[in-house]
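Progress note, sequence design subtask.
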């Protein structure tokens, strides 16, 4: 049985997925996401659940990602 080869980009992507999953199940994410959904609904944002999820994930990811040093290219 052959195993798929994993290059450095695959390893980084797997690491990102693991970090994103950790963030999404955290109490901090759940709390902040609920607050943002309420705020976005109140302000008439289209699809407040999706936008709140994206914004919550982005803010907590940037806050915790030790590799994010102002770069918008995490796969370099």
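Output:
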């Amino acid at each position: 049985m052959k195993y798929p080869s994993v290059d450095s980009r695959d390893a980084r992507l797997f690491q990102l997925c693991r970090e994103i999953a950790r963030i999404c199940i955290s109490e901090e994410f759940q709390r902040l996401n609920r607050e943002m959904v309420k705020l976005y609904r109140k302000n008439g944002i289209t699809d407040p659940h999706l936008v709140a999820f994206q914004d919550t994930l982005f803010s907590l990811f940037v806050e915790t990602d030790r590799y994010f040093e102002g770069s918008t290219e995490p796969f370099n």
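The chain has a mean pLDDT of 84. Work on this subtask will continue into the next period as scheduled.
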